[in-house]
Design goal:
Layout: E1 11-13, E2 15-17, E3 20-22, E4 25-26, H1 34-50, E5 65-69, E6 88-103, E7 106-119, H2 126-141
Parallel strand pairs: 1-5, 5-6
Antiparallel strand pairs: 1-4, 2-3, 6-7
Length: about 150
């Protein structure tokens, strides 16, 4: 057993297809903008569903991290399972309205999305994982997208 460290992020996306689950990979995802990454995800998910996906991006060891989104199925909470040999996977839940105190006695419903991070303690310390998940939440909360 050993731990491999990577200089680049090769992000897997769990895709449900008629032929079963596929996890295609966007290589060098860290070089893409959020809109570029979204476009790549949309393209590879469509390729998986229509059977035209490049087998090279489906290799089990092609990815360094996977994202699994069950939010589009209305799932409010789940725990994803790590795709070995990766050491972590992020579960994205559905967006739901939640009450929030805006101050001065004002409350409003705001969109809320739950995230679940499953990670292998042999390669990632719990404190590091917690800070990573918090950073993802912060990035989502402050996200500004230009289409």
């Amino acid at each position: 057993d050993s731990v491999r460290y990577f200089n680049k992020i090769h992000l897997g996306l769990a895709v449900d297809t008629e032929r079963g689950l596929m996890v295609p990979v966007v290589r060098n995802a860290d070089d893409l903008s959020i809109t570029g990454l979204a476009a790549q995800f949309k393209e590879i998910a469509a390729a998986c569903r229509n059977g035209s996906v490049n087998p090279d991006i489906l290799s089990p060891d092609a990815g360094t991290f996977t994202v699994s989104n069950l939010g589009n199925y209305g799932v409010e909470m789940f725990t994803p399972v790590i795709n070995l040999p990766q050491s972590a996977i992020l579960g994205v839940n559905t967006i739901i309205p939640r009450p929030k105190d805006l101050g001065d006695g004002v409350y409003a419903f705001v969109p809320y999305i739950g995230l679940s991070l499953t990670y292998d303690h042999r390669s990632l310390d719990g404190g590091e994982a917690t800070r990573f998940l918090k950073q993802i939440a912060t990035e989502i909360e402050t996200l500004e997208i230009e289409w």
